[in-house]
Each structure stands twice: as C-alpha cells, then as structure tokens.
Amino acid sequence: MSFKTLNLSKKLLTTLKNIGYTTPTEIQEKSIPLLLKGKDILATSQTGTGKTASFVLPLLDNLEESDRIKTGDERYKVDALILAPTRELVLQIHEKIESYGQNFSHSSVALYGGIKLGSQVSAIRSGANIAVGTTARVLDHVKNGSLNLSALKIIILDEADKMLEMGFIDEIRKIIGQLPKERHSVMFSATFPKPIMSLAKSFLNNPITVEIDKENLSAQQVTQHIHLVKEEEKMPQLAKNIIENQWEQVLVFVNTKLQADKIVEHLKNKKVKALAIHGDKSQGMRVDALEKFKKKNITVLVATDVAARGIDIINLPHVINFELPFKNEDYIHRIGRTGRAGKEGEALSLVSSKELAQLKEIEELINKKLEIIDKQESQTEESQKPSNRKSRKAERKSGVDLKKAKALAEKMMGKEGLKEISKHKNKKPAGQKPSNKRHF
Ligand code: AMP
Fold it and tell me: How far apart are CA 150 and CA 344, in angstroms?
C-alpha cells in the first residue's frame, strides 16, 4: 500500500516523499482514513510503530489554514491540543508537526515545564494553532490566561496509559472540562486497563477501536537476547558487552534514578562515555544528553522508562535492559527504541535468577520465547564455530523453555540461586507491582 491510497492531500504526499516515507506503517494505514473523516478513535499502538505520523498527518490536513491575523483574546485560542506524558515526547511530537507540516501555514507550540512561561506565551500569541503539551504546563497556561481551549476542534491524548500511570488523571479531566462538547477526540494507549476504558468512555464519542497485530507489538526487526547474570555481575557484564563489542550507541534501561547514576559512574570509570536521563535531571541536562547521544558524542545513554518516552533515534542499534522493567508492558516500549521503522536492532536483557519468573511473563505477553545466550559463550570465539551456530539455529527454531533457563541458571548461579527462583514463583512478580511515581 502507498500513502496515495489514504486520501492525504497532495501537499502532504510531496512532503512524505521528500522525507523518504514510501509505505505507511500498519497503524498509519488503519488510523489515517478514519481520522481524515473526523471519527473518534481509541487506538492501541506502541512507540516505534509510526504512531506519531498516524495522528499528525490527518491533523495537518483536517485543520483549516488561515492567514488571518488574530487579535485580542483570540490570540490565545488554539485549534488543536495534543497531550503527552513527558517533555521529551512533547518535543518529539512538536518536531514531527514542524517536519510533516513544512508546507502548511499551521504553527505548533510545545508546552512543557522546567522553563518559564514567557517564550511559550509569545509563541501562542504570535499565532500557534496547534499546542502540544504536558498536562501540568497546559493547565498553567490556562490558569495564566495564555491558553484558551474554548474553540478547540481536535484533542489527542498520546500514551494515555502512561499519563494515567504517572497520576495525571485529574489534570486530564480538568483540561477536558475546558473543551467544547463538539470536538474531534482521539486517544492512543499501549494498554487498556480499567481506568483507561473509563476515561475513553467519557472522553470519546462513538469511538472506533484501532488495533495493530500483536506480533507487531514486539518489533519484529529487533533481535532479542537474554544474558543470565548474577545480580552483582550485571554492572561489569554491561561494561564488558559494550567495550568488547565496540558498540557505539547503546541505550540502557534501568528502573531507578539511583541505578542510572551508578551505571554512568561505573562506565565512566571504564572510560566509556555515558550520561543519564531521569526525573532528577533538569530539562536542559536531558536535552543536552539526548543531543550528545544522537550525535554519538557519548556512547551510552542510561534512562528510566518515563524519561525515555520521547527518544526517537533512527537506526538506534542497541538497547540493553539492565534489569527487567517494573511493568511487563514497558519491555515492549523499551525494545521498541531499536529496530524502528524497518531498521534492524538488537535488544539484550541482563536477567538475574530472581527475574526469571517475570521473564516468563514477558514471553507470554509478547508471545515469543526469548533466546538465552550463555554469557561466557557469547563473548568467546566458541560462539562463532559452525557447530555452535547450527545448534543456535535449532534452538531459535524450537524456542527456549524455562527448563533450559533453569539448567543454565543452575550452571551459572549454583543451586542456591535457584532456590530464589522457586521462592519467587509463589510471589507476585515485580512486573505486577503498581508503578511508583517516585522511582522516575
Ligand atoms: P513513532 O512510532 O511515531 O515514534 O515513529 C517511529 C519512527 O518511524 C520515527 O523515526 C518516524 O520518523 C519513522 N516513521 C514513521 N512512519 C514512517 C513511515 N511510513 N516510513 C518510514 N519511517 C517512518
């Protein structure tokens, strides 16, 4: 299928051709025609699947272009609002609007905290008709009188489940309270827990559900591996992987800010250039770290899940899960940072004995057995021998079961380590814990 069949304007088709998009992704194929017709949708799509373009392209076509200069209070009215959970994601969406909208007279403003309201107020006043923002900053502008949502035509909630998880539901409801009843409403969410469904019910009008194949959820272009590692060996193993393989651009995921900082320290001691992004870093520091990472001025970026939301680097080759995420779904988000838009990527997870039960849950979620690589074997020439390649191939074909994982774990960690696994079996796995805002 080509973009031509989706009914997008000629202007957009030219832009897409110029930026090198030839074929719509699945979510684009399904969402764009519905959104062009003004239908409310509830869409499930992960990052990395092209979801931003799936709502930005029809938005650009649907909004009326106007050269009329706004005056008085009209200057604070915008036609469209996109809400996203993090500053990084807000900036990423804003940049995409500017890129896809280069032949339109639409103008976008990014509204996020950590900087003064002033420059954002000026951008709104000087004619922005699309606002992209975090909930708190949007409300700041509404209270300040510098943003008026009473004439809004289109509202889009991106990564709604993340916004709810981060505790923004009251802010979302306050913002919805400011909107006209007659409007076009769109909601994207990776998961659909009860609170999301209840928000969708009150927010959307006769929505059409748009889903993409579960297979596509765990990016098919991503080779996924597991290294079984003792907890205390994770740090040296991480450094070893990066140094010995001479990886140049690696995104490492952790669950806590503390862990992120520790890893950066460890890597710096090993002469690997690394920076961290997490909730304790100022906006300036986060943007700076991201820029340095994109330009390959640093090798490693260590990130918590929420801070990594907006990271969009084409062709990012390596993602490492230093630990499995608090929430199983975040595994999909994490590995989605590589193998983006048709490019190949590799995701490696360092898994300790206490995480094996959760690993099994993740495998069920993505409907795929993950290949466990014996860490010693993977680092030596042994792995290059044809006989080993052959057995790997057979292994991939058959998948790896938990028995094998346990046998390997026993080999590496001894029986004591394995006792921990059976203890864990009866416990609620870490992935089921409600996420805790403090961690980010
Ligand atoms: P997203 O899921 O929106 O974060 O997009 C993931 C990446 O795919 C971004 O780098 C986009 O620029 C890119 N992308 C989106 N749609 C397409 C497409 N149809 N063809 C090629 N690349 C795309």
Answer: 45
